[in-house]
Amino acid sequence: MAIVCLGLAAAFAGKWLxxxxxxxxxxxxxxxxxxxxIVGSIGISTHQLWLLYLGYGVxxxxxxxxxxxxxxxxxxxxxxxxxxxxxxxAIMGFGGGAMIGAPLxxxxxxxxxxAPEYLGAENMVALVTExxxxxxxxxxxxVEVVIASANQxxxxxxxxxxxxxxxxxxx
Length: 171
Fold this sequence. Notes:
Blueprint: H1 2-20, H2 22-45, H3 49-78, H4 83-95, H5 97-112, E1 118-120, E2 127-130, E3 133-138, E4 141-148, H6 150-154, E5 161-164
Antiparallel strand pairs: 1-5, 2-3, 3-4, 4-5
């Protein structure tokens, strides 16, 4: 969804950018992209998939597309005799963010990741389903849980069974 909206925004924003200028388009891009992440995070916290699609996919995608087209268009105007090089450098900078982001994410995961709280095997925990959500009855009261298969649990070094929602950071 985000990539489709990025492409649509980049394809159709050129004429609008020429009318209002790259600074205005950049500000709109920042608000759409940041607002999209906020709406998407609300969708995650409230378990509403449509809000995630709307926020991260549509709003964030359009923001990213506008943020992408703004510097590319400006660089082409600044360097009319080197249009290919200017465009190539802008695209390299856009894609090169992964060279910074990937090691940063790895370092953050090593520092902050922790395994989720394991309550036990599925047949050993008292489970209740309310409005499509699973809860476990514990001494402290009901807590929302997910049930992880052996393959899912292996991805974070755990066992198959019941895990408390919200006790895992970055997993």
